[in-house]
Design brief:
This protein is of the alpha/beta class. Strands 1, 2, 3, 4, 5 and 6 form a 6-stranded mixed sheet that branches. Strand 3 and strand 4 form a beta hairpin. Helix 3 crosses helix 6. The longest helix is centred in the C-terminal third of the chain and has 16 residues. It is elongated, with a radius of gyration of 28 Å.
Length: about 290
């Protein structure tokens, strides 16, 4: 009757079906109201799926598609619970830094101030282990602290000082290392090596190190590795180094830098914030005088 009431009178349908007209109206009044969150629920699920099932509630809310709907964090969490979806959960950490007891003393120029005002002036880095079916793969990074963009990276089958230098070389070649910039790391042997010291001196980079055994002194690099492992590496096994290498590059360049909103920078993407800086500081073209 509900579906046909636009075409036939309720009184006629009630008589033909031998039902109570008042009973139909009473049922219509007691029907559950339409769900006002249907559209928002679909948007939340879409944002989550587009993140390859990685985003938690805060990141989903930061995506423009859901942010434009004015959803609160509470509402996003509730909708995700109703949908039975969740972000990836952090795994436990493992200490991997092996300090060199004979390394020269270096100062801590950052002192846990991980939010410099200008991009390309303060970077940090570290090395992590990635296990594959063919053996270990080592990833070194160079991260811009202002934008949180991974501006340089290097992958190697051996954990030697040159993997750290290669990550910085990439960052320098791409224009993400300013003159007299600071590069901060832990006291691992690769970062206190003569090879890295020589590269830094030749490129006008000041080296900075945190305290031994304190992961908090290099928290940004540690946080990035946790994100990479939680949101990509730990989700499957890696039979070959080539597969792991391709996935890491895709995660850094295709997802983390350009698609993943970062809470520390106001849920902007790292590459977006870096590009905005270069656009803002690019020299403006000179206006030509009008012809007489």
């Amino acid at each position: 009757m509900e579906a046909e009431k636009a075409c036939f009178p309720v009184k006629l349908m009630a008589r033909l079906l031998d039902v109570s007209r008042s009973g139909f109206y009473d049922w219509a009044r007691r029907r559950p109201p339409e769900d006002p969150w249907t559209e928002a629920r679909a948007a939340v699920e879409r944002c989550w799926l587009e993140s390859d099932r990685r985003f938690g509630a805060r990141s989903v809310r930061a995506v423009p598609a859901s942010r434009g709907m004015g959803l609160t964090l509470y509402r996003v969490r509730r909708l995700m619970r109703e949908l039975g979806i969740r972000g990836v959960v952090p795994n436990s950490k493992k200490r991997t830094t092996v300090p060199d007891p004979g390394a020269p003393a270096r100062p801590d120029l950052v002192r846990r101030d991980f939010e410099p005002p200008v991009p390309t002036t303060v970077l940090c880095g570290d090395i992590t282990y990635l296990h594959t079916g063919q053996g270990w793969l080592y990833l070194a990074t160079a991260i811009d602290l202002c934008t949180r963009m991974v501006v340089g990276w290097s992958l190697s089958e051996r954990m030697t000082a040159d993997v750290a230098v290669s990550a910085l070389e990439m960052a320098k070649a791409r224009g993400y290392v300013a003159g007299n910039a600071i590069f901060h790391s832990d006291r691992g042997a690769q970062y206190t090596s003569r090879l890295l010291a020589g590269w830094a001196a030749a490129n006008g980079v000041r080296l900075s190190v945190g305290r031994t055994g304190s992961c908090h002194d290099n928290a940004v690099a540690e946080s990035f590795f946790a994100t990479l492992k939680n949101e990509m590496y730990s989700l499957r096994s890696w039979p070959t180094r080539a597969e792991a290498r391709s996935a890491v590059v895709g995660f850094i360049e295709g997802y983390y830098n350009r698609r993943r909103p970062h809470s520390t920078i106001g849920y902007q993407t790292p590459a977006g914030k870096m590009e905005a800086f270069f656009e803002r500081t690019a020299p403006k073209p000179e206006k030509l005088p009008l012809a007489a």
